[in-house]
UniProtKB/TrEMBL annotation:
Binding residues annotated for NADPH, in chain numbering: 53-54, 74-75, 91, 148, 182, 297, 322, 324
Species for this entry: Prauserella halophila
Compositional bias ranges of the Basic and acidic residues kind: 1-10
Recorded catalytic activity of this chain's protein: sn-glycerol 3-phosphate + NADP(+) = dihydroxyacetone phosphate + NADPH + H(+); sn-glycerol 3-phosphate + NAD(+) = dihydroxyacetone phosphate + NADH + H(+)
Keywords: Cytoplasm, Lipid biosynthesis, Lipid metabolism, NAD, NADP, Nucleotide-binding, Oxidoreductase, Phospholipid biosynthesis, Phospholipid metabolism
Highest taxon of the lineage: Bacteria
UniProt protein name: Glycerol-3-phosphate dehydrogenase [NAD(P)+]
Length: 376
């Protein structure tokens, strides 16, 4: 696969069009999820559905990379603030958004003619939200998922949910993973991400559209591993927060990160992931960033629980934003049980978040389990 030339922080998205590009800019050449990988694609116009921390930050990356970006916000006042003041103060205080990023609360207006559509709502709301948007998706658009979670009940990964609801092959969805704490990236701090898709051409098209001087996207074809890594680390971040809240230090957190990665990789191996994905940005990269940073909502949530606060108080501490691990500990635990995979930390988080178990007691039980070799 030849590499395409990359140019960070393009000021003109048309720069991205080269003589080899045979894709219709309107995206009508190829319906989303239909025949793919036959022609290089160019993404010029992107719609981001959801205007929370990561949705807004990802929109900023795309706009800084020279794309025309339209955001959809479910609250009209958020859309007006983004469109008129170029800020989203509720989610990214102090951040100025680029002029080529606009917003509306009307999904049809937001979606009109988009070459790519980024789904940036919480995992457990994705099915319902996408159900409203399905009929409005432009033909040929590339669907991109930012959500890191596993659906309750169905135990499906987000690309599976998107494929089902949008009626496209799940391996046509581009999944964004990696150590991407929104506030750091919105402040222009250097970071890398990984864009996973079964169709390499689609991943490359989005990679090119999101390449800036501060954000470096890689591609990967292991969608299963990338999605599971992103969902599972939120649960492990809860446990690291709890450990910190209980007053434990770096050894405890490092143990949870390492053993958390081990149980994530075990689940991934069982479900067909490439084990090397867990050694990459989506795996160890995101695990370390989320488990160690006070910016993580999941870690913060866990820390509050560790300090003795209730689930409701911990939810307040993350300011109404989503701590995906709280729901995903249930769906991932169910997935693990169904797959016959042992995930003791995830199981412990389920007991704390959903059965009212005492965090210190659960921690002691984790330590006291049957001894075993590090690698089975
Ligand atoms: N924040 C981060 O650093 C990162 C987040 N992610 C993942 O990206 C996904 C989106 O995260 P993020 O943008 O941070 O989330 P936030 O909680 O910051 O924002 C959620 C956004 O979705 C909207 N929304 C629409 N429908 C719903 C609904 N039913 N329930 C709740 N919110 C809804 C919210 O609207 P409203 O404002 O009106 O509530 C808001 O715009 C998550 O899966 C997260 O794990 C991935 C990498 C980094
Ligand atoms: O996914 C993230 C970083 O990669 C964000 O983590 P939180 O949702 O815990 O803030």
């Amino acid at each position: 696969m030849p590499e395409r030339p990359h140019r960070p922080d393009a000021t003109d998205a048309t720069d991205a069009t080269d003589a080899t590009d045979a894709t219709d800019a309107t995206g009508t050449a190829d319906a989303a999820g239909s025949e793919s990988g036959e022609a290089e694609r160019t993404v010029r116009t992107v719609t981001v559905l959801g205007s929370g921390s990561w949705g807004t930050t990802f929109a900023k990356i795309l706009a800084d990379a020279g794309r025309d970006v339209r955001m959809w916000a479910r609250r009209p006042e958020v859309a007006s603030e983004i469109a008129e003041q170029h800020t989203n103060s509720g989610y990214l205080p102090g951040v100025t958004l680029p002029d080529n990023l606009t917003a509306t609360s009307d999904a049809a207006t937001a979606l009109d003619g988009a070459d790519a559509v980024v789904l940036a709502v919480p995992s457990q709301s994705l099915r319902a939200n996408l159900g409203h948007w399905r009929e409005l998706l432009p033909a040929g658009t590339i669907l991109v998922s930012l959500a890191k979670g596993v659906e309750l009940g169905t135990r499906k990964r987000m690309s599976e949910v998107i494929g089902e609801v949008a009626g496209v092959p799940e391996d046509s969805v581009v999944v964004v993973a990696g150590p991407n704490l929104a506030k750091e990236i919105a402040a222009g701090q250097p970071a890398a991400g990984v864009f996973a898709c079964g169709d390499h051409e689609r991943a490359v098209a989005v990679q090119e559209a999101a390449f800036t001087s501060y954000f470096r996207p890689y591609t990967n074809t292991d969608v299963v591993g990338s999605e599971l890594a992103g969902a599972c680390k939120n649960v492990i971040a809860l446990s690291c927060g709890i450990a910190a809240g209980l007053g434990f230090g770096a050894n405890t957190v490092a143990t949870l990160i390492t053993r958390g990665l081990a149980e994530t990789a075990r689940l991934g191996a069982k479900l067909g992931a490439d084990p090397m994905t867990f050694a990459g940005l989506a795996g160890v990269g995101d695990m370390v960033a989320t488990c160690a940073s006070p910016l993580s909502r999941n870690r913060t949530f866990g820390e509050r629980i560790g300090r003795g606060e209730t689930i409701e108080q911990a939810q307040e501490a993350v300011g109404g934003q989503v701590a995906e691990g709280v729901m995903s500990c249930r769906s991932i635990r169910d997935l693990a049980h169904e797959s016959g995979v042992d995930m003791p930390i995830t199981d412990a988080m389920f007991r704390v978040c959903h059965e009212g178990s005492d965090p210190a007691t659960v921690g002691a039980e984790l330590l006291g389990r049957q001894q075993k070799p590090e690698r089975l």
